[in-house]
Design goal:
The complex is a heterodimer of chains A (853) and B (233). Chain A is 30% helix and 17% strand. Chain A has 853 residues and is an alpha/beta fold. Chain A has 5 domains: 38 residues, no CATH class; 52 residues, ADC-like domains (N-terminal domain of TfIIb), CATH 2.20.25; 311 residues, Rossmann fold, CATH 3.40.50; 212 residues, 3-Layer(aba) Sandwich (Dimethylsulfoxide Reductase, domain 2); 138 residues, Barwin-like endoglucanases, CATH 2.40.40. The chains are: A alpha/beta (853), B mainly alpha (233).
Chain lengths: 853, 233
């Protein structure tokens, strides 16, 4: 915010005096700076408002929404009227976002640090700079890498995204010459996807057919509060309870558990044992769904507890390896043993197993991150998902589903390659900074060694400069120094990077280590983009649109930043990126090349979405009549997903069947072992697992890893996501604290640690006590709530509070780096689930003690 | 001109001129205080005698405000450009918590929000005066509100000089309404936030100066007006 003209500082001429003689400005025409003549026929406050479509990215549901805009202000939110997913409704996050948009602590202008020292509690002393200075500085740093032929030392770290991510995440690093496009995907749920991929060949979140389910087994998540189809579940859970049995498996009493018919409060990390115990009952009592799984050749059940079964005696239909699974992992996991390991009673295990079987095949097994994101969670994710297979609730009516196709364009790899010079081609194939694919870090996403991302290990690579040092780091819509467990490692890693840029709406812990921060749009309200999502059998493409003019001087991170940098690199003699962008993203209707970054964003959006609205092909969904109609409706629905689309040998597994014995995992692990010239047992040992031999290829129980001795840290910490968390970006919203009590057991305006009365009595804690929560990693202050809704031996607290660098509301005292509450990710020690590359944040490795302050 | 009142007219005119000059001075105070909330440019502020001029203008308006302006002037000589920029940013720009959010709605709407109902009130006042905001900031940024008051004072002064009394009264009325409805509800608290959160002598002086000056303006604008620019009208 600069003074535009020197005259603005001059005194006005006194009445009757000559301005020319006094050197003062005349009084008749005031010299303005921020104000200018305005000519509007529309009186503010007198025009009706308008509902405008966009997309909420407050969680991974990615709801199509509409926003009521009046006088240029966003004032209300609802679901998009055309949506077949949320049917016009949103969850509390949808409304909360208004305070994100109108947060006075947002970044308003580009800023640079003036204090070269980086560290926690060290004020960067940011000052405003012009866009030109910011972009020139960044381009100069990038050109230094080009000149030194070390382009791999540029690293892009992605947080939450739209599908316009291709521009900043794929095109920009690859044409520049870096392999380092590090997503945050494994922070969320890659271990969960591991479970569905190595059983049914589907690396994605599943859809759930709640309308037709007769049994809903919710495991390690709270679908009315988080996960992937929240408004749809909020609307349906009540009806489902009239029709179906609802069971929640979770160490804490979630909102869903509070409404459910049954709550199974298992010990963290024992999910594999409990799932196998249920499987044991289903198999030993002959209750599996024969229409999916098949049967013994003679119809006589030979699954006797502890007894091996001859494989040839059973003929499977849509599945593969049931008998092997029984023999290797299930036969000895009796319900009694499962009860002992999991802390869930044998009676409950029996009742749930029989109930599921009775409802088969209309059974939803809704597996969430709590079942999977453990240090040894890959196999428990498989075990929980395999239960769906046993009862036929896979790709079936009332069960879990895959997705209908969304026919949008893909990035044009030929154009990308055409603009990569030799340096870029060579260096973009260097090893990535997260070390994925190393012996101890298989990350076998999609069956390929190193095929996914190990977000949390990027900190290790950066800190140890292994395989090399990162010199230019760009982060967007992310904050790993808060959102990844083991925050201390991130702080050290980020402090070691010589030049960092943060593209974001709000400065945060990551910004504390940035040299330049750039103000970006709040996705839901201020930018174009698109995402793909699904729920209720419908796949959806929904647009993000600028429903209000941005208040401050912000850009779209994913498109404008690459375009503006491309222009600057071109000025410096490297035009490849610019040439690639304008060729790849010319207007699909006119062929016009984008003239500026704003037009570039619109053309990129048109390029990707054009198959939905250009009328050339049948989209198998809503008919959209051209670009204007697409903008007006804001979204596209597919036809309803067809049940059993993958039955009949069409699962994308090695056997083409649903695999209880995973040939797909066997191939992936063997491939990784061969790459490193070791055997699979060694791979698993290096990856923190205990399994040997054939156990490596079937869903099984792994004892939980634990950081901290039982003597010093007797309790197990449970992290969960508040229903008010907007992907970690609502911490500066006052409503977040005011309404925090919407999380069961929570209290508004405090960071609440829930503790069972038995434990509270044992450790002398009373309701409302200020307590010190400590793990081997860190300590922090919060407030105890003595509550039965968390199982004895565990304490739970929602993720979201504990910022030491953020806005006025989120931080207790920024100047002193004093957090408001305690960050769960500081308490949870750094750890990975190494087969999928996931951040391990559940499953019991975070042992803690609680002391009254 | 040869009437019996001939000898009286110059005196009256003199009085009027004096009143108009007071009005112009008050407007300039608003303007120079608005300047203080932009990105600081030490060279420009020094060359244009920002503190000195402000002190001079305030001499007949508020003794305390003048003392504060003098302290601003002294501080400006001593503080480096870099420190001015750093402290200005941490007070009014960010990127972390704003020590003293410069937006009226943060204080008036009570939900720590920009673009509140009170922001629309300010925008509507500008519209009434034929103006719109020409920078990327919410309409109730302190610098914009101060500039608007300067604009109104200036327009009123021009109207009175040209004997357009109806126009002049309209600008005066809008000043009073804006002063009482848009500025007074928050600027005192805003100045307190600067004083509590900064050690920069220049901005401490700005806060004291603004606070005292606005208080002194009460004597000009009289009792709070009953009428206001109500969005629900």
């Amino acid at each position: 915010m600069k003074i535009k003209r020197r005259d603005f500082l001059k005194l006005s001429a006194a009445a009757g005096a000559s301005a020319a003689l006094t050197g003062c400005v005349g009084a008749n025409e005031p010299t303005t700076n921020a104000l200018a003549p305005g000519s509007s026929n529309v009186k503010i406050g007198e025009m009706p408002g308008e509902w405008k479509p966009s997309t909420c990215q407050g969680c991974t549901t990615w709801c199509p929404v509409e926003i009521f805009v009046q006088d240029g202000r966003a004032v209300k939110v609802r679901g998009n009227r055309y949506s077949k997913q949320n049917e016009g409704s949103v969850c509390p996050r949808g409304h909360l976002s208004l305070q994100q948009l109108y947060d006075p602590d947002r970044i308003k202008v580009p800023m640079k640090r003036t204090n070269p020292k980086k560290g926690r509690g060290v004020d960067p002393k940011f000052v405003p700079i012009s866009w030109d200075e910011a972009l020139n500085t960044i381009a100069d740093k990038m050109m230094e890498l080009r000149k030194a032929e070390e382009t791999e030392k540029y690293c892009l770290m992605r947080g939450r995204y739209t599908y316009l991510r291709d521009v900043i995440y794929d095109v920009m690093p690859k044409v520049f010459g870096s392999p380092n496009n590090i997503s945050h995907s494994s922070t969320c749920a890659e271990a969960e996807k591991f479970g569905s991929f190595y059983t049914e060949g589907y690396w994605d979140y599943r859809d759930y057919d709640l309308d037709n389910a007769k049994y809903i087994l919710i495991w390690g998540c709270d679908p009315v509060a988080s996960n992937r189809m929240i408004p749809a579940t909020i609307q349906r859970l009540g009806d489902a309870l009239d029709r179906a049995t609802v069971v929640a498996v979770d160490p804490r009493l979630t909102t869903s558990a509070a409404k459910a018919n049954e709550w199974l409060p298992l010990m963290p990390g024992s999910d594999g044992a409990l799932a196998l115990g249920i499987a044991h009952v289903i198999l030993s009592e002959g209750l599996w769904f024969k229409g999916f799984v098949g049967d013994f050749n003679d119809g006589v059940n030979r699954f006797k507890p502890g007894m091996e079964v001859e494989e040839t005696s059973f003929t499977e239909k849509e599945t593969h390896g049931l008998v092997k699974w029984w023999n290797i992992a299930v036969k000895d996991m009796s319900p009694a043993k499962a009860a002992e390991l999991s802390g869930v009673t044998e009676e409950q295990i029996l009742r749930v197993a029989r109930g599921m079987a009775q409802a088969a095949p209309n059974v939803c097994v809704w597996m969430g991150p709590g079942a999977a994101m453990h240090a040894r969670g890959g196999y428990s994710a498989m075990a929980v998902h395999a239960l769906g297979g046993l009862v036929g609730g896979i790709d079936n009516v009332g069960g879990s589903l895959q997705t209908a196709k969304i026919p949008v364009n893909k990035l044009d790899k030929d154009i990308l390659k055409k603009h990569q010079d030799d340096l870029a081609k060579k260096h973009s194939k260097f090893e990535k900074i997260d070390q994925r694919g190393r012996l101890e870090l298989p990350v076998i996403s999609h069956g390929e060694s190193g095929g996914g991302v190990a977000t949390n290990n990027a900190a290790t690579g950066i800190l140890n400069k292994d395989p090399y040092d990162i010199k230019v780091l760009v982060g967007y819509m992310n904050n790993p120094a808060f959102s990844c467990n083991g925050t201390d490692r991130w702080e050290k890693a980020l402090a070691s990077v010589p030049f960092t840029v943060h593209l974001t709406t709000n400065a945060s812990e990551f910004s504390m280590f940035a040299d330049i921060v750039l103000p970006c749009t709040v996705n839901k309200y201020e930018r174009y983009g698109f995402v793909k999502t699904k729920a209720n059998r419908y796949a959806t493409c929904t647009l993000l649109q600028p429903v209000v003019d941005p208040i401050w001087d912000v850009i779209v991170d994913e498109t404008e930043f690459p375009f503006l940098i491309a222009e600057k690199l071109k000025e410096r003699g490297f035009s490849n990126l610019y040439d690639c962008l304008v060729e790849m993203y010319s207007d699909p209707e006119t062929g016009k090349k984008p003239a500026d970054s704003k037009e570039f964003t619109i053309f990129a959006l048109k390029y990707y979405t054009s198959p939905l609205w250009d009328g050339k092909e049948d989209t198998h969904g809503d008919k959209i009549n051209g670009w204007a109609d697409m903008l007006k409706k804001g979204m596209w629905n597919s036809e309803a997903y067809k049940y059993k689309a993958h039955w009949g040998g069409k699962f994308h597994t090695e056997s083409k069947k649903f695999e209880f014995y995973s040939e797909t995992l066997k191939k992936a692990l063997t491939g990784h072992a061969d790459k490193h010239k070791v055997d699979v047992d060694t791979v698993l040992e290096k990856a923190n697992y205990t399994a040997k031999g054939e156990l490596a290829f079937v869903p099984h129980y792994e004892p939980p890893l634990r950081h901290g001795s039982v003597e010093d840290y007797p309790l197990v910490f449970i992290d969960y996501k508040s229903r008010l968390n907007r992907e970690g970006r609502s911490a500066n919203c006052p409503w977040y604290y005011e309404f925090k009590h919407v999380d069961p057991g929570d209290i508004g305006d405090q960071d609440t640690l829930r503790m069972n009365p038995i434990d509270a009595a044992r450790y002398g804690i009373k309701d409302g006590d200020k307590v010190l929560l400590s793990s081997v990693a860190a300590s922090g202050e919060c407030v105890a709530r003595v509550w039965e809704g968390v199982r004895p031996g565990t304490v739970s607290k929602s993720y979201g509070q504990g910022h030491w660098a953020y806005g006025r509301t989120a931080t207790e005292d920024f100047a002193k780096a004093k957090p408001r509450g305690v960050n769960n990710n500081s308490i949870i020690p750094w750890e990975l689930e190494r087969l999928s590359g996931s951040n391990a944040r559940n499953g019991g490795h975070a042992a803690v003690r609680v002391e009254k302050i | 001109m040869k009437s019996a009142g001939y000898s009286f007219l110059p005196l009256r005119k003199l009085f009027m001129m004096n009143e108009i000059n007071k009005l112009i001075s008050r407007g300039d105070c608003f303007k120079l205080l608005a300047v203080c909330f932009y990105e600081p440019e030490k060279k420009l502020f020094t060359e244009e005698k920002l503190g000195e001029n402000l002190g001079h203008l305030l001499a007949d308006i508020s003794f305390d405000a003048r003392i504060a302006a003098d302290s601003m002037q002294r501080a400006l000589c001593e503080i480096s450009q870099e420190n001015l920029s750093i402290d200005h940013a941490s007070l009014f720009v960010g990127p972390f918590e704003l020590i003293a959010a410069p937006y009226g709605s943060v204080y008036i709407d009570k939900k720590r929000t920009v673009m509140g109902e009170s922001t629309l009130y300010a925008a509507r006042c500008y519209q009434e005066a034929g103006l719109a905001v020409d920078i990327k900031e919410p309409q109730d940024h302190i610098a914009i509100e101060l500039e608007f008051m300067y604009f109104l004072c200036s327009k009123e002064a021009a109207a009175r000089q040209e004997n357009r009394m109806e126009d002049a009264d309209r600008f005066q009325d809008l000043q009073a309404r804006f002063y009482y409805n848009a500025m007074r509800p928050w600027v005192n608290e805003f100045c307190d936030a600067i004083q509590a959160g900064s050690k920069n002598e220049f901005y401490l002086g700005v806060a004291r100066c603004l606070d005292h000056f606005l208080s002194a303006c009460e004597s000009v604008y009289g009792r709070p007006p009953v009428t206001c620019t109500d969005l629900k009208n």
